[in-house]
Amino acid sequence: NAGVTQTPKFQVLKTGQSMTLQCAQDMNHNSMYWYRQDPGMGLRLIYYSASEGTTDKGEVPNGYNVSRLNKREFSLRLESAAPSQTSVYFCASSETQRTEAFFGQGTRLTVV
Amino acid sequence: ILNVEQSPQSLHVQEGDSTNFTCSFPSSNFYALHWYRWETAKSPEALFVMTLNGDEKKKGRISATLNTKEGYSYLYIKGSQPEDSATYLCALPGGATNKLIFGTGTLLAVQP
């Protein structure tokens, strides 16, 4: 079972460059999430999608955009990368908020 | 944004010790509480999802309790083993769209 698949696994960007992190799940889940992990900060929610076509800001949305292309895919875009966006990014999905979330393997992004 | 607090921030125990952590949250508008285990260089994995006041869940040596009226949950590990070393996260759905918000976690290190 593939579960939640994120691409790429690693990326190095120069300040000002743009990129899109891809996420796809094959569990027919309604809810999808993007989190970033920083030392001592746990997981902070960037954006959330409750269903296809809907998105909602999380705790740290500035500098990011998202797109829920269909039920399977939820992408995260950095339009103009900044060193402060150096982090590990996790995509997750769940059927509802009362069921467990499943996480992708993470994307380690470095902005220089 | 929902305020989810975990304590302690970190814990060092000897193999065989039993230990517990706390997750505190606002008691109003409770929907569900999640516990996750997160090993270094891996993705978080769900331990429990609890929805009812007084819920108790168990998986092997790990158990959890929930008190929604006073706004806390305890995670217990009986007879800690080195392989229990990980960060333990709790999370709750919050806000108008019930987006899943995580606490900063408790880092457990079990010395052999």
Protein model, in words:
The complex is a heterodimer of chains A (112) and B (112). Chain A contains no helices and eleven strands. In chain A, 0% of the residues lie in helices and 50% in strands. In chain A, strands 2, 4, 5, 6, 9, 10 and 11 form a seven-stranded mixed beta sheet that branches. In chain A, strands 1-3-8-7 form a four-stranded antiparallel beta sheet, with no helix packed on it. Chain A has 112 residues and is mostly beta strands. The radius of gyration of chain A is 13 Å and the shape is globular. Chain B is mainly β. Chain B contains no helices and eleven strands. Chain B has strands spanning 5-7, 10-14, 19-24, 33-38, 45-50, 56-59, 62-67, 72-77, 86-94, 99-102, 106-111. In chain B, the strands form two sheets. In chain B, strands 2, 4, 5, 9, 10 and 11 form a six-stranded mixed beta sheet that branches. A five-stranded antiparallel beta sheet of chain B has the order 1-3-8-7-6, with no helix packed on it. In chain B, a hairpin with a 4-residue loop joins β7 (62-67) and β8 (72-77). Chain B is globular, with a radius of gyration of 14 Å. The chains are: A mainly beta (112), B mainly beta (112). At the A-B interface, β4, β5, β9 and β10 of A face β5, β9 and β10 of B.
Tell the overall outline of chain B. Answer: globular
**How many helix segments of chain B?**
0
What is the chain-wise order of helices and strands of chain A?
EEEEEEEEEEE
In one word, what is the shape of chain A? globular
Mean pLDDT of chain A: 95
Largest sheet of chain B: 6 strands, mixed
Strand content of chain B: over 45%
SSE pattern of chain B: EEEEEEEEEEE
Oligomeric state of this protein:
heterodimer
Distance between the termini of chain B: 40 Å
List the helices and strands and how they pair.
The complex is a heterodimer of chains A (112) and B (112).
Chain A: E1 4-7, E2 10-13, E3 19-25, E4 31-38, E5 42-49, E6 56-57, E7 64-67, E8 75-78, E9 87-94, E10 102-103, E11 107-111
Parallel strand pairs in A: 2-11
Antiparallel strand pairs in A: 1-3, 3-8, 4-5, 4-9, 5-6, 7-8, 9-10, 9-11
Chain B: E1 5-7, E2 10-14, E3 19-24, E4 33-38, E5 45-50, E6 56-59, E7 62-67, E8 72-77, E9 86-94, E10 99-102, E11 106-111
Parallel strand pairs in B: 2-11
Antiparallel strand pairs in B: 1-3, 3-8, 4-5, 4-9, 6-7, 7-8, 9-10, 9-11
